[in-house]
Design brief:
The protein is α/β, with parallel strands linked by helices. Helix content is 41%, strand content 24%. The strands form 2 sheets. A 5-stranded mixed sheet has the order 3-2-1-4-5, sandwiched between helices. It has a 5-stranded mixed sheet with strand order 8-7-6-9-10.
């Protein structure tokens, strides 16, 4: 049986990455070379990702002037988010990786959302953060994350949001400084928005002055409808604790940031096993939950 190539320690890292994510209503595809963006394709395809993903990938490859045989790895958003969308992306990534014998890097869709939203809001470029991602080569994933997080305790906080209905959000917490890739402070999960904001308010109250964030960025689905309610909840609960540091920034996921997160993993030699990579559903799909409830 053919086996996927695992990146070697020196220096078989992914130079050209195909990156994509379909966990939100935005279908995001990018082709990266190192920390540089070669091409990107971004469109709204809610409930129709399966019909357009392959053509979007081909369009991005054509725009970049890259044949799929020239790729060195695949980065894919694994969720959380849309149950069907995450499954489509992961299945496509595994199929391509198997056929092309490439390493695959599963990326948290919330991490990519946080990275892209903060970068756009704070004026950080793909090139600058790509150089930062490239700078973590030669360190283990655990040491890189621990050292960087210790250096960034007083940086910005980034809170990515995806609506999960019924007052819930898919969310996490990251910290970052200009010119540096974000580092994780709290795991991905589905949380009640009000409870999550109260938890963050408690973190702010407990933090020493020098450990408090320079800014708190709420990024992602923060516009119309329920998403607007989430933004209002953040302002109401965090406002007294965050003051002028709280910033709400609507943002739709872009493929370049999935690619940069994949680049960092590739440089750390941290690929996923092809046959065990699965979407991060976080919760059961509603239809499955109803089926189990009747059992």
């Amino acid at each position: 049986m053919n086996k996927i190539h695992q990146p070697a320690a020196e220096p078989a890292v992914a130079r050209r990455l195909l990156a994509f994510d379909t966990s939100t209503s935005s279908l995001a595809v990018a082709v990266m070379e190192g920390g540089s963006l070669l091409a990107e394709h971004h469109l709204h395809a809610e409930r129709n990702h399966s019909a357009v993903l392959i053509s979007a990938i081909q369009e991005a490859l054509d725009k970049a002037g890259i044949h799929k045989s020239m790729l060195d790895g695949i980065a894919v958003g694994v969720g959380p988010g849309s149950y069907t969308g995450a499954r489509i992306a992961v299945t496509t990534a595994k199929t391509l990786a198997w056929a092309l014998k490439l390493p695959v890097y599963g990326i948290s869709s919330l991490e990519a959302l946080a990275l892209g939203g903060w970068a756009r809001a704070a004026g950080q470029t793909v090139a600058a953060l790509g150089a930062s991602a490239a700078g973590c080569g030669g360190r283990s994933a655990a040491n890189a994350s621990q050292n960087a997080a210790e250096e960034l305790v007083s940086g910005d906080w980034i809170v990515p949001l995806m609506d999960a209905r019924r007052g819930q959000v898919y969310t996490a917490l990251f910290t970052a400084k200009p010119g540096r890739m974000p580092e994780r402070l709290a795991s991905d999960g589905i949380r009640l928005m009000a409870s999550w904001m109260s938890e963050l308010a408690g973190r702010l109250e407990a933090a020493a002055p020098e450990e408090r964030p320079a800014r708190i960025w709420i990024v992602g689905e923060t516009e119309a409808g329920k998403a607007q309610q989430h933004a209002e909840a953040a302002c109401e609960i965090l406002g007294p604790h965050a003051g002028e540091t709280l910033q709400v920034f609507p943002y739709e996921l872009e493929g370049a940031w999935v690619g940069l997160a994949g680049l960092r993993r590739s440089l750390l030699g941290d690929s996923d096993q092809l046959h065990t990579l699965e979407p991060n559903y976080t919760q059961l799909a509603e239809a499955e939950a109803k089926r189990l409830g009747k059992g």
